[in-house]
Structure formats: structure tokens, C-alpha cells
Amino acid sequence: GPVVGILPAAGRGVRLGEPLPKAFVELDGRTMLDRSVEAMLASAVIDRVVIVAPPELAATPADRLVGESFADRVTVVAGGAERADSVRAGLAAASGARFVLVHDAARALTPAELFVRVVDALRAGSDAVIPVLPVVDTIKSVDKDGVVTGTPDRSTLRAVQTPQGFDVELLERANRDAADATDDAGLVERLGERITTVVGDPLAFKITTPLDLVLARTVLASGVR
Ligand code: CTP
Ligand code: MG
């Protein structure tokens, strides 16, 4: 069966603070949405992409949201109030898929190779795969007053990125129950299912704040991506 990318792009981008919904903010003349779709389809391991758009933009023809050469492999659906609602809407439009890759439009500089690594792991037998990187800062847990309660051993910690890859039936099952995890794998974890990791990529960082936008634009201007 096909591999379907689900691209949550329905967020408002409150922390970024731009006038447009975040996925429609441009980086060097192209929207984050368009760049994300191109990376997914250019990887050649994803057959089609379901864009989960802000509801007021969901009726826009695909060829006005993304480059013309991708539009015939793209479906657009309306997102929901929370990211998990948007993923559920995307999943509903991914019928017939064998594997799904859930990927944030906000990770607009993700290299095609990362999609390949995730799909390779799925094809090798994993039902749930996430890209991860070592954490660079020491992480503390704190109580409600901000007083430190512990220091987890950093060598056992990983920062999690997208694309997150799943056997479609597993993600559907994970999403059936109330979904409030900050990532999709968190839902699968609650089912007690095994989640494997592949090496992430620094360029798959999530553009969340104005500083991230400066970084993304500088990366593009430098020619690294
Ligand atoms: N997302 C979505 N539907 C929502 C919320 C988020 O599809 N209701 C998507 C965003 O468009 C983004 C990804 O999920 O591509 C990661 O979310 P985040 O970085 O938090 O984006 P926003 O929610 O737009 O940003 P903020 O939380 O600052 O408003
Ligand atoms: Mg958000």
C-alpha cells in the first residue's frame, strides 16, 4: 500500500506572531507549506500528501497552495482546534495507506533524507518510528513553584522531531481514544507499543519563535539548504 504524508499546517503561529497563519509565512519567497510538501514528495518515499489547512483556507485549490508540479499528489482538508484534532482529520483522508508520516509544516527545512530514513525503518519492520537528536542542555524537572526536583540523566534523553512514521492501523488505534499528547508517538506509547528511533537532523528544527525564523532565513541565505 502507499505511503501517505500528513502535514499538520492548521496552526495559528501565536508564538511566531506574524499576521498570517504560520504555514503561510514565506521563507525566501516560498511558504513553509510549499517547502514542506516539496521535501516530502522529493524524497520519493511518500506517494501523496494530505495538507491539514486552517479551516478558512481548506477550500483553496491545491495548485494555489503548493507548486503546480506537486498539486496532483496533494489533498487539502480542514484542521481542528488542537494539533491532535488536525492529525485526526488528516488521518481520515489517508484511507488506503499502508504507512503514514506525520510531519509539521513548521519544520520547513527538513531534508528529504530524513523522510527516507523514517520510511526505511518502517519497511524494515517498525510500526512506529520517530527521529531524535541528543539534548544539548541539561534538563531539570521542577515543581509548581519552579523548585528543582530532579536532573534526569541526559544521556538517556532525546529531543523529538517529525516526520513520525506509523503503520496506519496503529496510529488510527492510538487516535481513537482521547488524544492530548504533544506528539503522535506519545499516543502510541500509551498503548504500550514499541517505538523505535532514527537519527534526526538539525535542519528539521521547528520554526516556533521569531528567533527560529531568523535562523531559517539565515540558513537559506547561507546555501546550506
Ligand atoms: N497545527 C495544526 N493544527 C492545530 C495546531 C497546530 O495543524 N490546531 C500544526 C501547526 O500548523 C504546525 C504543527 O502543528 O505545523 C506544530 O505546531 P506548532 O509549532 O505549535 O504551530 P502553531 O500551533 O501554529 O504555533 P503556536 O502554538 O505558537 O500557535
Ligand atoms: Mg501550537
Distance between the termini: 31 Å
Radius of gyration: 17 Å
Sheet having the most strands: 8 strands, mixed
Give me the CATH fold name. Answer: Spore Coat Polysaccharide Biosynthesis Protein SpsA, Chain A
Attached small molecules: cytidine-5'-triphosphate, magnesium ion
> What structural class do you assign from the helix and strand content?
alpha/beta
Mean pLDDT: 95
Count of discrete domains: 1
Amount of beta strand: 15-25%
Number of helices: 8
- Tell me the total number of β-strands: 12
CATH superfamily: Spore Coat Polysaccharide Biosynthesis Protein SpsA, Chain A
- In N-to-C order, the SSE pattern is EEEHEHHEHEHEEEEEHHEH
Note the main attributes of this structure:
single chain; about 220 residues; alpha/beta; Spore Coat Polysaccharide Biosynthesis Protein SpsA, Chain A; eight-stranded mixed beta sheet; two-stranded antiparallel sheet; 8 helices; about 30% helix; binds cytidine-5'-triphosphate; binds magnesium ion
SSE layout and pairing:
Layout: E1 3-8, E2 26-27, E3 30-31, H1 32-42, E4 48-53, H2 62-65, H3 68-71, E5 74-78, H4 83-92, E6 99-102, H5 112-123, E7 128-134, E8 141-142, E9 148-150, E10 158-160, E11 164-167, H6 168-176, H7 184-190, E12 196-199, H8 210-222
Helix pairs in contact: 6-7
Bound molecules: cytidine-5'-triphosphate (CTP) and magnesium ion.
Catalytic activity: 2-C-methyl-D-erythritol 4-phosphate + CTP + H(+) = 4-CDP-2-C-methyl-D-erythritol + diphosphate
Pathway: Isoprenoid biosynthesis; isopentenyl diphosphate biosynthesis via DXP pathway; isopentenyl diphosphate from 1-deoxy-D-xylulose 5-phosphate: step 2/6
InterPro entries: IspD (IPR001228), IspD/TarI (IPR034683), IspD/TarI_cytidylyltransf_bact (IPR050088), ISPD_synthase_CS (IPR018294), Nucleotide-diphossugar_trans (IPR029044)
